[in-house]
Structure to design on (282 residues):
């Protein structure tokens, strides 16, 4: 089982690379689950419940689709938890939001829309 | 002339040495060419294998997209789950058949996508909530994956020609 420090590093790196557009997330059959291939592995980021009070979970699958080590990080609700849990919840929430934007290509859609609007005189 | 008369033996030895070196270099070159040809043949066979596995996977995806919307759970779901398992096997074999890192990542993502659908179906069967399964979304996801596999197949064909 990886240490929480390793998972933290992994989440930070994934967040950083997703922000830079270097990790290509995909939509899945589950509305709030997004998936991205990273090397030989596939990572998934899921949310159940609402954005404000939901449960986020992060998993890794191997290249054969088997879940590696179960759920690696899971945090529910931003309220009523200790500070570290709240920070982790926020970190996963941020990665989930970025994954969603990447999967839905929201940034591309907005910039293409802007450029189309600029062409209208 | 006197020099040649005295040293013809040495000269002959030098020429023999040069010929030996030339023959050895030629043999090495031929061996390297044979090895390169063997590697190219092996790579080409692996590419043909990968194309075959991807073709089978794409055919199965078409089968699944036809079967899923029938929602005749008791009749088709065992078949559909079996098809997903065969699909996964084809993708695992295509991945093992020497694809590059980028293509392998797409295959891994496809396997992950199908695994999640299978889990949803199995969970729905266990909890007797088959009506909750959104087969339209399943079909959308697997059709997208089918398109990606098709693009990889075309890229492999182009690379192999």
């Amino acid at each position: 089982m990886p240490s929480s420090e390793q998972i933290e590093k992994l989440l930070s790196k994934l967040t950083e690379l997703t922000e830079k557009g270097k990790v290509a997330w995909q939509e899945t059959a589950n509305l709030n689950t997004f998936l991205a291939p990273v090397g030989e592995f596939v990572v998934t980021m899921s949310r159940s419940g609402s954005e404000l009070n939901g449960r986020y979970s992060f998993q890794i699958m191997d290249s054969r689709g088997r879940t590696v080590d179960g759920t690696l990080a899971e945090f529910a609700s931003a309220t009523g938890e200790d500070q570290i849990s709240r920070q982790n919840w926020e970190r996963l929430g941020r990665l989930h939001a970025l994954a969603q934007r990447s999967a839905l290509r929201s940034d591309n859609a907005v910039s293409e829309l802007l450029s189309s609007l600029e062409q209208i005189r | 002339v006197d020099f040649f008369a005295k040293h013809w033996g040495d000269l002959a030895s030098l020429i023999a040495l040069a010929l030996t070196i030339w023959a050895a270099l030629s043999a090495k070159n031929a061996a390297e060419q044979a090895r390169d040809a063997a590697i190219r043949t092996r790579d080409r066979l692996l590419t043909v294998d990968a194309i075959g596995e991807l073709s089978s996977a794409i055919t199965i995806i078409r089968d699944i997209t036809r079967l899923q919307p029938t929602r005749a759970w008791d009749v088709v779901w065992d078949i559909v789950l079996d098809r997903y398992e065969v699909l996964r096997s084809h993708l695992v074999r295509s991945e093992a058949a020497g694809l590059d890192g980028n293509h392998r990542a797409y295959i891994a993502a496809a396997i992950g996508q199908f695994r999640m659908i299978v889990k949803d179906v199995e969970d729905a069967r266990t909890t007797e909530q088959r009506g909750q399964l959104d087969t339209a979304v399943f079909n959308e996801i697997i059709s997208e994956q089918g398109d990606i596999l098709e693009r990889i197949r075309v890229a492999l064909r182009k690379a192999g020609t």
Q: What stands out?
A: The longest helix of chain B spans residues 2-67.
